[in-house]
Amino acid sequence: MEKQQLLEKFNTYRKKLNALDLALTTMNFDLNTIAPKKGGAYRFEAMSNLYGQYFETSISTDYINTLLQLSELELDELMKKEIELRLISYNKNKNIPVELATKFSLATNESFEAWQEAKEKNDYSLFEPHLKKVIALSKEMVSYQDNVVNTYETMLDNFEQGLTQQKVDAFFTVIQERLVPFIKQVVDKKIVKPEFLSRPVSLEKQRQVTELIRNYLDFNPEYSYISESAHPFSSTFSINDTRITTKYLENDFTSNIFSIVHEIGHGTYNHQVDSQYEGYAIADAMSMSLHESQSRFLENNIGRSYGFWYYLYPQLQEILKEELADVSLDEFILGINYSEPSLIRIEADELTYPLHILIRYNMEQRMINENITDNLDVLWADEYEKILGIRPKTNSEGILQDVHWSDASFGYFPTYALGSAYACQFYNKLNESVNIEEQLKQGNFVVIKEWLKENIHQYGGYYLTDEIIFRVCGQSFDPNFYCDYLIEKFTKLFNVSGHSV
After folding, report:
1. What is the pLDDT of residues 157-184, one digit of tens each?
2. Cβ(460)–Cβ(282) under 8 Å?
């Protein structure tokens, strides 16, 4: 078959897979936001059948033969990379029975619904059997992959190609050696939590704050949409259709602020991918560590900075006239950077955040590699007490707080901490050419957004994470940028010596 015929055949398959994927993405977004609970059983069956069709097409003999024949021909760079990415995906899935993939899809949908109910009722027993089933099915899925030596490491690789436990362990060793002693110094200061952080703010006002931030971060409604869900997330439909959610807490208005900034980081990344990649795997094949670097960059390096609020704070005070009337800009900055060991990861301060991820990383290794699945709620509480010195009183603030295990995202959590560290290395490089603080003070976020597009976003998944870091920074990943940033920042904020680190 001639090259042109093969390309046409591939494009027919590509468009079919894209259509199925778009349908599943839409149904999943609805499931997390607006879908009535009573329609769950019918919807889950339909979604699992649809996923079965997608999976069967993606491993069909004719489709793979088309990819293999194209891989041997001389192609342009875009198509060459596209075929490479699709073959990597195929090689992970080629041996998995379609029946198992369909069963797995149904189980994760049912697990998500059980998680929601369990969290609302603070009853881990409602979720436990589903979690055990999802763990077992996830391990079974991985067992069909070629050359699996370590099941959990294979799961890590699914979220960042080439990521190993050795790399994650080395990262957390630096965190424990440099940050843990510093965190203790901050905790020992016994800093009082500012009272204004817990002042009630109506949902109506918080939605106005959402629009304020959305406008400042140039998250244009022409290509974006913001909804609400039990756990904030972002979802990519296409380069020009990116959707995010937030969660409003009446007595914790800053939770919404940083959820919105975080998710806009994800959505902006997807939107700023080069338009020539639309409809190709490259458009959404970036590692989750790299993706989290962009959301954590906006949430922390930008969103918790003085320059960001120097410009925005007067406008925030205009919306929250009563709530922030007696709070100065300096007091607000100290408040949003207040640090203490806490129970909820997504509400955690920037300094203690990596310890929340360490807890989950430790648990995932035991769940997957050591087959420990009983009494995970107790194990969770024990890990929090051991690492953060606090113990959850309920399962809703313990093992039920995160959605990720309900959808089998084992190996995802480390990407949050790694992403936070990558973000600091990118921030350091950006600051060499752009005075970030001054640009933010002037309300000029666009210059930062354009730098991110030029150096990171436009490439989508064309380069591996390590390649992007080296291209942007001129050196390999170094977690000390992360530690230096946090120690310097919190030393200045709270007058901590930092000498022992």
Report:
1. 999 999 999 999 999 999 999 999 999 9
2. yes
pLDDT digits (tens, 9 = 90+) for 377-434: 999 999 999 999 999 999 999 999 999 999 999 999 999 999 999 999 999 999 999 9
Pick the CATH number of 165-494 from 2.10.25.10, 1.10.1370.30, 1.10.10.60, 3.10.20.90: 1.10.1370.30
**60-75 tens-digit pLDDT:** 999 999 999 999 999 9
Catalytic residues: 263
Q: What is the DSSP string of 73-111?
A: S---HHHHHHHHHHHHHHHHHTTS-HHHHHHHHHHHHHH
> Is there a contact between 269 and 301 (Cβ–Cβ < 8 Å)?
no
Burial code of 95-133, b = ≥16 C-beta within 10 A, e = fewer? ebebeebbbbbbbbbbbbbbbbebbeeeebebbbebbeb
180: which 2 tokens?
A: 């843990």
Domain boundaries, the chain: 3-148, 165-494
Pairwise CA distance, residues 51 & 356, whole Å: 33
pLDDT of res. 1:
74
